[in-house]
Design brief:
Elements: E1 19-24, H1 31-44, E2 49-53, H2 59-69, H3 78-102, E3 106-110, H4 113-122, H5 128-138, E4 145-150, H6 153-161, H7 174-191, E5 196-200, H8 205-218
Parallel strand pairs: 1-3, 1-4, 2-3, 4-5
Helix pairs in contact: 1-8, 2-3, 3-4, 3-5, 4-5, 4-7, 6-7
The structure holds adenosine-5'-diphosphate and thymidine-5'-diphosphate.
Length: about 230
């Protein structure tokens, strides 16, 4: 408790004035590319944008990212892994996402809770109920808009494998998991039609980017182009 009696706790579940946009989809579908292009397009229109990612996005959450994405794939049980992803998200919310939304900024996040619903909820048994319960208890906030970049898993995996790096934790599960994840993401889009927009990622980068910008602009409370004097 602080001297003034407050706990300093961040209310993750409250409503804030900013716009919270997340990108979801299988590995290699083009999420990171499209997040960056959307951030650049909105910044060019003079919006204040925070571009971030999960797992990670804050110092503590980036440390947890290393714990969950590197090393022996069997180092955590499914339940422990779910707790680690949720802990990372809570830190990210408290330190980065909520403060930006509270200032009315646009937060663009490369993956969020829907990835947990898919990867931790489906890939190692059925933990979806636990995922949803933990989300309600510790996060309590859904995005205003979720852009699902839909993609043929074989093509997505080929793209993802083209990248070098030590973070191969989930990509290593291979094509079967990617197919399961694609179907699961499409089912989530049907479950939450108000906030999901499905965009075909199997087109040139600029074509996808144009549709993403048009889609996000349509969901913004004010016209996106503030560049006019
Ligand atoms: P994700 O974040 O979904 O894993 P990335 O944005 O990192 O995907 O893209 C994976 C790879 O595919 C990168 O090398 C990127 O340049 C390439 N890529 C992204 N979008 C497209 C696209 N529409 N067409 C062809 N290649 C793409
Ligand atoms: P990311 O860096 O977005 O991978 P990619 O660019 O290949 O799509 O995410 C890393 C991995 O973390 C990805 O395979 C999905 C997984 N992940 C989860 O399992 N649960 C989660 O809650 C999140 C956010 C990601």
């Amino acid at each position: 408790m602080r001297p003034d009696g407050s706990t300093g706790a961040v209310d993750c579940a409250a409503a804030y004035p900013g716009l919270f946009v997340t990108f979801e989809g299988i590995d290699g579908s083009g999420k990171s590319t499209q997040c960056r292009l959307l951030a650049e397009a909105l910044q060019a229109r003079r919006f204040e944008v925070v571009l971030t990612r999960e797992p990670g996005g804050s110092d503590g959450a980036e440390e947890i990212r290393r714990l969950v994405l590197e090393g022996d794939p069997d180092r955590w049980s499914a339940e422990t892994e779910l707790l680690l992803f949720t802990a990372a998200r809570r830190d990210h919310m408290e330190r980065r996402i909520i403060p930006a939304l509270a200032e009315g900024q646009i937060v663009i996040c490369d993956r969020f809770a829907d990835s947990t619903r898919m990867y931790q909820g489906l890939s190692r048994g059925n933990l979806r109920d636990s995922v949803d319960q933990l989300h309600a208890l510790m996060i309590g906030q859904e995005p205003d808009l979720t852009v699902l970049i839909d993609m043929d898993p074989a093509k997505g995996l080929a793209r993802a494998k083209g990248r070098q790096g030590s973070e191969e934790r989930f990509e290593d599960f291979g094509l079967n998991l990617q197919q399961q994840m694609r179907a699961g993401f499409l089912a989530l889009a049907a479950e939450f039609p108000d906030r999901f927009r499905v965009i075909d990622g199997d087109r040139p980068i600029e074509v996808v980017a144009e549709e993403v910008l048009a889609t996000v602009s349509a969901s913004m409370p004010t016209a996106p182009d503030r560049s006019a004097p």
